Amino acid sequence: MVRDSASFEDAPSLQTVLDALNDADCRAILRETAEPMTATELIDTCDIPKSTLYRKLELLSDALLVREQDTINPGGGRTTKYERDFDDVMISMDEDNDFSVTVERPPRNADERLADLWSKMGDEL
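Structure for Helix-turn-helix domain-containing protein, as requested:
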């Protein structure tokens, strides 16, 4: 299961972000998820096997680069879509010559924050 990045206050580690961005399949997923997509759509669009896709989504989730959105279907059940969750990723070096990563996120409106909370509650039930 992909984590909801809105619920995490800690920045991802530099190595986690680099590992995700160094993976060709992860980069393909990030290119395609400017708009929310289901796993099935990503499998077809990125030409990635299902089991591999979920591993890559987990890697991207750990790096807080992708977020999961659940929609409740009127007829029952829910649909999960995945969306890129950053505007910019910056890697810098400080005065002690240590590298760091900063992930800039798009602002969320009240409806999106509520949907994130609702999704998280659904996972805990």
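Strands lie at 37-38, 66-72, 78-84, 88-93, 99-104.
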